[in-house]
Amino acid sequence: MASLTFDNLCQALSMSFSPDKTTRNSAEAALASIKGIPGACHLLLQVVSTKTIDPSMRTAASINFKNTVRSQWINKDNPALQVHEADKPTIKPMLVELIMVETQKNIRSVLAEALYHMSISEYPHSWPELLPSLLNNIRVGGSNGDATRVYGSLYALRKLCKRFEYKPTPEGRAPLVQIVKEGFPLLREMLGTLLHQDGEDVGMIVKQTIKVFWSCTQFNLNTLTFEDLRPWFNMLHSLMAKKLPAESMPQGDDEREKWVWWKVKKWTIQIMTRLYSRYGNPKATEAGLESFATQFSTTVAPTFLEAVCGTLALRSQNEFCSDRVMMLCLSFLDTAIEQKATYKLLKPHLDFLLYNVCYNVLKLKQSDIEAFENDPHEYIARQNDLMSEFVDPSMAAMQLIEDLMKYRTSTVAAPLVTFLVTILNNYTNAPPQTRDHLGFDAALHILGCLQAFLKKKKNNYVDSLPGLMIQHVLPCFNSSVGFIRRRACWMTTQFFNVQLDEASFRTLTEAVLQRLNDPSLAVQVEAGKAFRYILEVPGTENSLLPVLPKILNEYFRIMQEISNEYVVSALDVIVEKFGEHISPHAISLVENLSRSFLQYCDVDDDEEDMEAAVAATQCLECIATVLRVVQDNEALFATFEPMLCPIIVKIMDKEGELIDCLEHGIDLITFLTYFQTKFSPMLWDLFPHIFTAFHEFAFDYVGMMVTPIDNFITKDFEGFCNRKTPDNVPYIDLVYGMSKKVLEAGEMAEEAEIRKALHLFLSIFHIASQKPESKPFVDRYVHSTNDITIAKLQEEKDKDFATTRVQCYTVIGSLLFYNAELEMGELEQRGMVEPIMKKWIEDAAEIDKYGSKKATVLGWLALLSMGSERLERNGINPAVVVRGVIELGQSLSEDYNDRLNNNFDDEEEDEGAMPPMPPDGFDDDEFEGATLDDAGDEDGDINIAGNADYQRVISGDPMMMMGGFGADDWGDDDDDDDFESPLDNVNEIVLIEDVLNRFAAAEPQKFEAIKSTLPAETLNQVAGLFAIAAEARTKATTSV
């Protein structure tokens, strides 16, 4: 921009909306160039404040201002672009005033976000006047009746609170405590004057006030006592009980859901539900707040319960209640049934709660039916939406029913089951034209969700379940009502393992198969999900073999119509279950799954994008299952390559748009390279794409990438050595580029990733040691291998853990075995023979992996083969090397007999493995961590105080309450070198005997001198090793 003026800035903002790309790019470049120019932020705010300017330009100015603040308010990397310090004292009050008076919602939101980013570096130390200014604007606006100013001040105050509400320490929350101390008296007084007013502006102010309260109390009370909060509790109760004027309420349900007063109720019940979950049980609350919890649970919660129940009764009185409020009220009751004081009040009203509220909530709404019939994709998306748990009252209603059955069984179970069975019988016995389909569907829904309870032997319902399926579910498969047919399929997923007679189970199986071709897509999808459970019944797959092609075709057809992860997952189970019978269909499976993957990747609709992405990933998992099942049929893999290679290339494209699929893409390359003995040019062309992905976006995946790279190198070493990229880069250079990047990445690379990168050197030199013809080519890389490995070894030399050092020793040992003279020359040239060997010998006790032990032994044997004089010249005592070889050889020989008989298993028992699953019929009746306080008193408190996660939640741990993970939840499960190696064919015990015998023959006096220094135990070990070597030679001779 030639010069920064108001008019020039407006022109650039206007041009940034131009449909012409050149004009738009020019404008965007001009706007980007104003960073660091004195007065730029002032001009942007001036544009925002000028109401005569087009709203889109004002919005653009606000966004530019926010982005400037976010990136340039403090810029340590490039101070020249930082907002000028001289501008800041005037920008801050100007921004606050604009937030106070702005009426356009999106602009106010953007400006408040800018304030938030400013506060990170400014408040409270450099901006102490911010809080007094906001509170004063609330006070002045309230006195003058200026609702816009009051609301804008509250909006900014909430942003300020959010800056500190997640801080875990008292020091971090100190500014929030100050806000509570100075602001709560004013907010409490103002809220009290607004409780009985109904205007839209009043509702906005009330909503924002209680949102500030939420941010100040959701994780910690921040020095507030019960007496401080008692007036707030009373006001929140008044808001919950407030009858909303029908004449002011919008007419449509969608508009009512968004109406500010229903949002007020939503925030009110959300606050009380959070407080109740933390302070409802004095025995389980955080230390020091037991008295607060006692007062809350005995005075506040019971009083609030009445208002909650009144709200839940609205729908039964043909009045409106928003879904979110219904959901939160039911969640409040879910906590109430666990506490003795509130359960006692609730118990007389359980019939109303279960049969008038929960049951009716679980009925399909008219909008659900319309979507089912007219927009099945939307209906299916709703059914699979995991986020619905947080907004859908039916989820909360079902959770409440389940918890009542669990905790208050004797009171609830029998009457509820009787109620549901009566509905089923009435439906079955009624003429088709008078049947209550919605009620019947809801009853089946409840019974299906209670399947775990109903299947427990002690509850005495197990024997009735076959009758439920035969009498009420099986007929539903042929219902004229689509959503009833879908419910029948869903019930199959819940009760597939009920003991049906053979004829009934066959009828059920046939019914599910027929629904795969149902007129309704939603039914087809549910049938696709149900069929996988049918296959869980032993022996089912054998009876279905004749129709397997038809089944697969139905799944392919459904997958073409909709992207649904559960359908693809079911297909995965089918492939696994039918196992060896899949081979004739493998090509068709891979072809259709590949096509579906590409189709799902091209979904443009944002709403369907997530579902499609998950389904695409599931396609890749299913393809991997097919490859695993047909692994013995190598001829098929050549047919798969034209289908799979383009997919892998797409996944590894440098843009990284399919990074969520990368793990599965790497798995596919691994399968293609592991189960084939010959590699086609098409398969080799994938090799560079691995490195493109690594360098562009997938550094963290190097651990997975090493496996297929290792397959490429060791299974076709000649192809690896001879191939280059289109840019004439040898493939071996790609490998070295990857290893170098990882090993020089410092803290960016995990130890496991470093070890994997070093393993790539092992892949090359182990196979090269067995292929003499490749040595002239590979010899050229010994120097750079030493450069990289020794540099890493030097970094690691003083660290407490030797894991990475051991991997470096493994590389050096492999180099010595590959070409001892060349490697020794490299070490001597660097003056590193003595320091490396000294540390290597010290760390020998830390070498616990078979591969690393073997490489060390082979490397040290190579040193001994060079003669004692060469070793001593480099400061190495041959006796120490000999003893080390014998001790490591003894360790390797302990499982030698197993390996000799091809039964070698280097896997150790996993101490962290899951305990065995309980046997069939095991009755897991107890809810872990939850008990009734008084034995036999079902009206008592539910005690979950012993649950550690619960204790973290109620103690206000923000990470736990937000579903976060602690440091201990992130582990390195990579325990590295369980790779096959060409050196597995080298018998190190035989080689120990050969080298020691040659040493004794070449230098008898030196050898005898060394023997004299060895303890008797070591000499006995030598004899044992020689015996094993003799046995190995004999076995090798007789097997020829």
Automatic annotation (TrEMBL):
Listed A to Z, the keywords are: Cytoplasm, Nucleus, Protein transport, Transport
**Which GO CC annotations does the UniProt entry carry?**
cytosol; nuclear envelope
Gene3D superfamilies registered for this protein in UniProt: Leucine-rich Repeat Variant
Q: Which GO terms describe its molecular function?
A: small GTPase binding
Q: Which residues form the Importin N-terminal domain?
A: 27-101
List, in alphabetical order, the GO biological process terms annotated in this UniProt record: protein import into nucleus
Q: Which PANTHER family match?
A: D-IMPORTIN 7_RANBP7, IMPORTIN-7, 8, 11
Q: Which organism is it from?
A: Triparma verrucosa
Q: Which SMART domains match?
A: IBN_N
| Location(s), subcellular | Cytoplasm; Nucleus
Name used for this protein in its record: Importin N-terminal domain-containing protein
